[in-house]
Structure formats: structure tokens, C-alpha cells
Amino acid sequence: MPQDMPPTGGYEPVQYKRNLPARGFRPATYLLMVGAICTYGFWRVGQGIREQKYANQFRT
């Protein structure tokens, strides 16, 4: 009984990696966004502290 043989030139390579689209932003973008939010928050806290100091000067 004859046996099936591979085609001449061989089989094409098997694609075993998944080509998934990149989702979301790059990590550097997230880092910049978090840094900007933290900077804004600390700035607002500083404003609140300054405002309390100024308001307490006139309470006697």
C-alpha cells in the first residue's frame, strides 16, 4: 500500500503565535497620566493648606 508523502518543497511553517491587536495605551502613557493626576492633587492640597493658614491668621 503506498504511503502519503509530504509535498515537494515541504509544508509551509505553522503559525503558532497569536496576532492580537494591542489594547490600551503604552505603559509610558499611563505613567505620565498618573504623574499628572498626582501632581495636580498635591498642588490642590498645597493650595488648601495655604488657604487654611491664611484664614487662621485672622481668627483671634
UniProtKB/TrEMBL annotation:
<comment type="similarity">
    <text>Belongs to the complex I NDUFA13 subunit family.</text>
</comment>
<keyword id="KW-0679">Respiratory chain</keyword>
<keyword id="KW-0472">Membrane</keyword>
<keyword id="KW-0999">Mitochondrion inner membrane</keyword>
<dbReference type="GO" id="GO:0045271">
    <property type="term" value="C:respiratory chain complex I"/>
</dbReference>
<comment type="function">
    <text>Complex I functions in the transfer of electrons from NADH to the respiratory chain. Accessory subunit of the mitochondrial membrane respiratory chain NADH dehydrogenase (Complex I), that is believed not to be involved in catalysis.</text>
</comment>
<keyword id="KW-0812">Transmembrane</keyword>
<keyword id="KW-0813">Transport</keyword>
<protein>
    <recommendedName>
        <fullName>NADH dehydrogenase [ubiquinone] 1 alpha subcomplex subunit 13</fullName>
    </recommendedName>
</protein>
<keyword id="KW-0496">Mitochondrion</keyword>
<dbReference type="Pfam" id="PF06212">
    <property type="entry name" value="GRIM-19"/>
</dbReference>
<feature type="transmembrane region" description="Helical">
    <location>
        <begin position="24"/>
        <end position="43"/>
    </location>
</feature>
<dbReference type="InterPro" id="IPR009346">
    <property type="entry name" value="GRIM-19"/>
</dbReference>
<keyword id="KW-1133">Transmembrane helix</keyword>
<keyword id="KW-0249">Electron transport</keyword>
<dbReference type="GO" id="GO:0005743">
    <property type="term" value="C:mitochondrial inner membrane"/>
</dbReference>
